[in-house]
């Protein structure tokens, strides 16, 4: 491995200065050596020539990352302080060697305390993520997500080498419909329906009547237009305000916004709207350890008030409400999905550069590639769980088995 230089100077006079009062330039050399040693544990070099190595442009990068952890890592990338030709692999290597656990910043401690002390996903705060993230612009998401407008993990089984994102998303949507055993005339509730990709697929291919709820006005307006002529209804409301009865319930990529203090309420709602012979499918990103807090950078810049569940937390919250019939982990498919989104995002960026600016571009790139790295490292999972109120009497069989 190439030896890291003891000091780094700016390569671009336009690089932003270190925030006032945050760093001591006298210790920058010491921080640089400590940071190089830390990265070396994951076979990452500073200013090396391999694609996952880290090219540093700003003198205070090491100090900023060591002081602020993941928040400093992401913010310094947004500010142009460092680059990597393969950022996704850099993050994957850092996580596989648990470098994140060796830099415990004040921001991470505060994030953990906030989540413990406050309900960050209460009814008043629940709408914030819709305004901050999902309402960025339907044309922007359309360019990134493709024809299905599915903003959740695709299912790549059998088509890994095709690179066809739309086909993989259709495979995921059909997998969900088959796991739920949808039949013509059934009524499906989609909690957190997004732009309506699941409802559109279920209504078109399975003859199902659908009701979806979302906290994003942009999503609801766009989804209604896409589903014109189908038995599909969009409701702009929080999941806690859902009423009615449904044969099947699905929630695809929304549970990450519910928060552990509200998990029980969520499952009680799902149980309340289902008959005893109904089925509930939960599709969610999850974490391996319940004690791990939300990443501070993701919370500040991408998904405010997000909270990934652990399997144990899901089991605790659903206990005596549902029988868990099936658990399917295909989290490795999210790596491929995120890389496909990133490729589409970069290809379409010229359409949006004037609207969002270069710092947003670097923020979004970091979001997509860093998340791909977490799934590649298998520190983050993607689960589909099928649940029934009292257990399927003859036993539940996953499709294809």
From TrEMBL:
InterPro entries: CFA/CMAS, CMAS, SAM-dependent_MTases_sf. This is Cyclopropane fatty acyl phospholipid synthase. Keywords: Lipid metabolism, Methyltransferase, S-adenosyl-L-methionine, Transferase. Residues 1-26 are annotated as: Disordered. One of its GO terms (biological process) is lipid biosynthetic process. It comes from the Bacteria. The active site is at 371. Its EC number is 2.1.1.79. One of its GO terms (molecular function) is cyclopropane-fatty-acyl-phospholipid synthase activity. Belongs to the CFA/CMAS family. The lineage of its organism: Bacteria, Pseudomonadati, Pseudomonadota, Betaproteobacteria, Rhodocyclales.
């Amino acid at each position: 491995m190439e030896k890291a230089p003891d000091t780094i100077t700016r390569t671009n006079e336009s690089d932003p200065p270190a925030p006032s009062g945050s760093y001591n330039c006298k210790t920058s050399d010491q921080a640089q050596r400590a940071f190089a040693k830390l990265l070396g544990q994951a076979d990452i070099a500073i200013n090396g020539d391999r694609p996952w190595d880290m090219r540093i442009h700003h003198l205070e990068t090491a100090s900023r990352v060591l002081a602020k952890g993941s928040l400093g890592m992401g913010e310094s990338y947004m500010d142009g302080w460092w680059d990597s030709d393969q950022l996704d692999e850099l993050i994957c290597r850092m996580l596989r060697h648990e470098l994140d656990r060796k830099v415990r910043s004040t921001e991470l401690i505060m994030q953990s305390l906030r989540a413990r002390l406050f309900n960050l996903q209460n009814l008043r705060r629940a709408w914030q993520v819709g305004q901050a993230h999902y309402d960025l612009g339907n044309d922007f998401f359309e360019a990134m997500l493709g024809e299905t407008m599915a903003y959740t993990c695709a299912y790549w089984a059998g088509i890994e080498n095709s690179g066809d994102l739309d086909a993989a998303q259709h495979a995921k949507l059909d997998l969900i419909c088959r796991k739920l055993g949808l039949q013509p005339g059934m009524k499906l509730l989609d909690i957190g329906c997004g732009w309506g990709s699941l409802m559109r697929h279920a209504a078109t291919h399975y003859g199902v009547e659908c009701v979806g709820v979302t906290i994003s006005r942009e999503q609801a307006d766009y989804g209604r237009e896409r589903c014109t002529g189908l038995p599909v209804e969009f409701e702009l409301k929080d999941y806690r305000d859902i009423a009615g009865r449904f044969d099947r319930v699905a929630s695809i990529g929304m549970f990450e916004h519910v928060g552990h203090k509200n998990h029980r309420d969520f499952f009680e709602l799902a149980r309340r709207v289902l008959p005893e012979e109904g089925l509930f499918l939960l599709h969610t990103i999850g974490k391996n350890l319940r004690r791990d807090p939300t990443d501070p950078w993701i919370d500040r810049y991408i998904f405010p008030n997000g909270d990934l569940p652990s399997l144990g937390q899901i089991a605790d919250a659903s206990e005596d409400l549902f029988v868990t019939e099936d658990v399917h982990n295909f989290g490795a498919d999210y790596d491929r999905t995120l890389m496909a989104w990133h490729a589409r995002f970069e290809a379409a960026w010229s359409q949006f550069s004037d609207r969002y600016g270069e710092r947003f571009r670097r923020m979004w790139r970091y979001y997509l590639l860093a998340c791909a790295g977490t799934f590649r490292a298998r520190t983050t999972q993607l689960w589909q769980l099928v649940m029934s109120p009292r257990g399927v009497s003859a036993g539940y069989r996953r499709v294809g088995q």
